[in-house]
Amino acid sequence: MLINLPSETTPCVGRAAELAEVRELLREPGLVTVTGGAGMGKSRLALRSVRGGDWAGFDAVCWADLWPVQNDALLSASVADALRLSDHTSRTLVEALCDWIGNRRVLLVLDSCEHLVPAARSLVADLLTVCPRLRVLVTSREALGMAGEAVVGLGPLDPATEGVALFEARATAAGRPLRDTADRLLATRLSTHLEGVPLALELAAGLLRHCTLREAWELTEERPEALDREESGPFPSRHSALRTAVGWSHELCRPAERLLWARLAVFPGSFDADLAALVCLGGPLTADALREALTGLVRKSVVVLHDGRYRMLDSVRAYGRMWLRELGEEPAVAWRHAAAMLETSRRANDGWLSAEQQQWYARMGDLFHDVCLATRHLIDEEDASALELIGNTAFFWVCSGHLHEVAYYAQLALEVAPRDDPRRVRALWTLGLARILQSDHAAGRAYGRASLREAFDAGNIEGVRQAVYLEGLAALLDGEPITALNRADEALRAGVPAPRDAAVRPPAPGADPPRPALTFGLMLCGLVRVFALTGAGRLEQARREAEEQRGVCVGLREYWTRSYLDYQLSLIALIEERHGAAADHAIDMLDAKQRIGDQFGIAMGLDLLATSWCAQEDPGRAVVAIAASDRFWSAVGLLRRGTPEVLPMCALTRARTRALLGSAEYEAQVSRAQSMAPESLLHTVLGQQRTR
């Protein structure tokens, strides 16, 4: 089972009736929507409902946090991400989602939909129409308005009972527990004054780190007029209690904390201290002042710190955005955020071919929503830097399964960029890469040719080599290894390889072309050459070059290229019937792919591992690898894919393993293995090799 749920940072207090109602409604397929105003605890109720439920027999229980999604076009991508679906097809993502869920028993939570209601309504309608066993739990300030939708309205807590209980629990967590009856009576008055709104009570409890309960009460009693100006802010008048609590927290902040609160509101999701500094420094916020202010906001419960990352609750962020506009800083902070993403992407691109590669894959994954927001800002401003940002990010995103987003933003960036901008070369390459990996080889080759032509005309050697890699990749996937080999050899020469209509004569077979200093493009073309040599049957030469290049990768502590070299070394060993060596290289590939989160590569490596184990007359291990392979191929939306020589091996492996085990035992073992979460299943496969 795939379970993808956020952590519960604080316990849920009260809401017993609502919890029971939601859980009962989720017993049947369909849509359940938890509605309520800002700060009512919709997300916490949904999380507690799911975490406390019995989902035995379900295929997946997944949570999609939609607050960072500021664009309807990325809704489906965020849902696919929650389901760990890294779709590598040219279908729409809605089609891919419908196909992946299909008849599976899945519970999907869409949290914070209020800013995406029309798009969410359309997506959920499509999913429920096609997927008969799907449960969807939505949290939103308003219902989606669909036929058959079950709505659970969430109002304030009872101030005298659950409201006080929540306040007391959070006060204790803040180190200021209620001491006696007098404190509890005052807490009841405070809870009543704040109308039992959960977030308002939590913010009030957070302030006890800085003042006594009596001082907190007197503050709300004596200074409500300070909050009157927020009537036109992010909270409607009916949410006066929450407006009071948030405004009250704001009033108690020091000027530097207020300024940082406003600037932090630019972040669509979580962030770390380094990113906060990169975007929010300036004026009175020096480095020391920013660190102190961030600590102060955490202590006041304005910012939540969990596992080293910071996050604002939605209502608190909305308040910050209001103040950012009031300060007149919204455009400047948006540009600083975009500039920070651009600079980060440059560092990531520069660090790809280095020991920092693994860390940059993780970092760019954390920054996914920030890069989306920054790219959209640059596109809307018709700033051609969007070309560079998406180009720098592309190779990280495609490995993480964000092909649709890469293609979407690359297309938009190209539409607004000047025709003579040299950064178009990488954006065209990016779009071509996405199309090839989505199995649209014709479109991918066309974009590759366009990238090659513009790079060639500009004398951009590295751009040409990267474009030639696209040609070679498409040729390999189409079963044309000689074409791929010839083009790779041209790219590996010193000098600039030409477009195909001006191609130079390739070297004689078996000749080793001279190689200039190592770059990203040369690394990619060298990899194509190894694949092409294998496809052409020149195994000894392929193995020698693969081992040489792998040694370079090991020295650099680089994993992406190394993983595909291990793939080729495993394939060569299988062809040569060195099955133990094939398994070792497949395991090394899987380890590398796991480090960078490449599900497509994991699926490829599992095929070779299953084949090597089956060839060693070990069907017990082979069947688990087969089940894992099927699971990961499903997660990328494909039945199976790879260079042409691999596919017949996979078919023979499945047939032979079934014959060795017997059909009944084969199906039973596959079923048992596929009931596990993908990560657990992969861990089991790797553990089988290590224990032998």
From TrEMBL:
SUPFAM superfamilies to which the protein is assigned, alphabetical? P-loop containing nucleoside triphosphate hydrolases
Check the record and name the InterPro entries matching this protein. P-loop_NTPase
Q: Could you give a GO molecular-function term held by this entry? A: ADP binding
Signal sequence residues: none
- What is the name attached to this protein's record? NB-ARC domain-containing protein
Q: What is the lineage of its organism?
A: Bacteria, Bacillati, Actinomycetota, Actinomycetes, Kitasatosporales
